[in-house]
Design brief:
Blueprint: H1 12-24, H2 33-53, H3 56-80
Length: 81
C-alpha cells in the first residue's frame, strides 16, 4: 500500500495554489541568521534585566502572587480529582 502524504491539500484549487507557491518561492526566503541571533540574545537577557530593575519589595510581591496562583491551581486540581 503506498504511503499518503497528509501535507497535500485535497481541494484541486488549494493544490494548484500550493504548486504555484512552491514553484515561485524564493530559495533565499529564510530568516536572516544575524537577526535571529540578535533576537535570541535579547530574549536571553530579558528576565535578568527586568529583575535587576525591580526593587526587592516588587520582586517579593511578584513571587507571592506566583505562589498564590500555584497553590490555587493545586487546590483546584485536588477538588476535581
Amino acid at each position: 500500500m503506498p504511503k499518503r502524504s497528509s501535507k497535500k491539500p485535497r481541494d484541486v484549487n488549494a493544490m494548484a495554489a500550493a504548486i504555484v507557491s512552491e514553484a515561485t518561492r524564493d530559495p533565499d526566503d529564510r530568516k536572516n541568521p544575524a537577526a535571529v541571533a540578535l533576537g535570541r540574545l535579547g530574549g536571553q537577557k530579558g528576565g535578568k534585566a527586568r529583575a535587576a530593575k525591580l526593587t526587592p519589595e516588587q520582586r517579593t510581591q511578584i513571587a507571592r502572587k506566583a505562589a498564590r496562583s500555584r497553590w490555587q491551581q493545586r487546590e483546584t486540581q485536588s477538588e476535581s480529582g
